Amino acid sequence: MAAAVESMAYVGAVPWHGLGTLVDENIGLEEFQKEAGLDWEVQKTPVMFNAPDHERTEFGGVKLATFKDKFVLNRTTDHKPFAVVSGRYKPVQPKEIFEFFRDLLAMHNMKMHTAGSLKEGGRIWCLAETGDVHKVRGTDGDDRVDGFLLLSTSYDLTLSTLAQFTSVRVVCNNTLQQALANSSGRVTIPHVKEFRAADIKDQLGIGREQWGAFTATLDVLAKTKINVDIAVQVMGTVFKLPEDVTAPNPDRIHASNVINLFLDERFKGADLAGQTAWGLLNATTEYVDWHKRARNQNNRINSAWFGEGANLKDAMFNELVRLVA
C-alpha cells in the first residue's frame, strides 16, 4: 500500500487514484470494513497536563491535572491522537459509516466500491455505486457517467460528516460532485450533532430526481459548442483572474493548463466531448484528478473529493451551467 493512503479496499476495476487492495464483490460489510483497515473505533480521553503544585500522584508519582471538558480524540487500537475536542464533540465511528449502507445495498441495489482512510486515519470514507448510469447525449451515447454515493467523516477537525452524490466519467475515470443549486445531493452533519442515518437518507432521498437533473444538465453541456475565446473567459471567471494579463497570479498557470487540455485532441475522452461546454468541464476534472501537482496521492484524493480540487470542479460546473442557461 502506498504511504499516501493509510488503508483502502475496493471492488471491481482499479479506482481512478490507482490505490487499494482488491476484495471480492460478494464480501460482507464487516469483512469489507476489516479489509479497508477500518476495524477500529475512536474514543475521547481526558486531556491531562503536568501540574507541579498539584497534589495528585496516583499516576506513578507524576503530578497531573485534568483540563476540564477537553479530550484527546484517539484510535483505540494504537491510541493515535487526532485532535483535542470538547465534550460536545460526537465522533461518528467507522462501523456507523459502513452500517449506513446496509439497507441501501439490500433494498436499493447499491454496491460497495471503495472504503479507506486518509491522513493517517484522520479522515475515512465509504463509496458505493448507486446503479445509476447515464450516456451523455451529444456524444453518440458513448460517453458514460456512473453515479456513486460518498459518505465520509473526519477525526482531525478538518471535515464535518458529509454524505454526497458523486459521479465518475467512465472513459477517463474523472470524478465530479453532483452539486446542483437547490438540490439534495449533499448533506453535512456537524460533529456537535448526533449522526442519524435515517435523517440523512430522508434528506438525500434515493437520489433519482437529483440524478435526473444532473444528467440532463450534462446533456445540455455536451450539445453546447464553445470556442477558445469563451473558454478563456470562463477560466478567468472561475479562477478569478485579473483582467490585466501582465498582473502576476499563481492560478494563471492552472487556467492555462486546463485550456491546453481543452484544445488537445489527445486528452482523455476528447474525441467524445469535443470543444463543448462538456469538453471544458472534463478538461478541468482531468486536470484536477490527474495532472495538477500534488505532494502525493493522499493530497490528490483529498483535494479532488473534499478540498481545493473539488471546489474548482464545482465552480467550473456552475459557471458552465450559467453559460448555457
Based on the model shown, name its key terms.
single chain, 325 residues, alpha+beta, 3-stranded antiparallel β-sheet, 11 helices, 11 strands, globular
Strand content: 25-35%
Main beta-sheet strand count, sense and barrel state: 8 strands, mixed
Radius of gyration: 22 Å
Structural class of the secondary structure composition? Answer: alpha+beta
Q: Count every helix, treating DSSP H or I runs of 4 or more residues as helices.
A: 11
Report the order of strands and helices.
EEHEEEHHEEEEEEHHHHHHHH
The mean pLDDT is 88
General form: globular
Strand element count: 11
Low-confidence stretches: none
What's the assembly state of these chains? single chain
Helix amount? 25-40%
End-to-end gap: 45 Å
Task: Outline the structure in words.
With 325 residues, the protein is an alpha+beta fold. The chain has 11 helices and 11 strands. Strands 1, 2, 6, 7, 8, 9, 10 and 11 form an 8-stranded mixed sheet that branches. Strands 3-4-5 form a 3-stranded antiparallel sheet, with no helix packed on it. Strand 4 and strand 5 form a beta hairpin. The mean pLDDT is 88.
In short:
The protein is of the alpha+beta class and 325 residues long. Helices cover 34% and strands 26% of the residues.
Topology summary:
Elements: E1 7-11, E2 21-23, H1 29-35, E3 42-50, E4 64-75, E5 81-86, H2 94-99, H3 102-107, E6 111-118, E7 123-135, E8 144-154, E9 161-169, E10 174-177, E11 186-189, H4 197-204, H5 208-223, H6 228-238, H7 252-263, H8 270-273, H9 277-291, H10 297-305, H11 308-324
Parallel strand pairs: 1-2
Antiparallel strand pairs: 1-6, 3-4, 4-5, 6-7, 7-8, 8-9, 9-10, 9-11
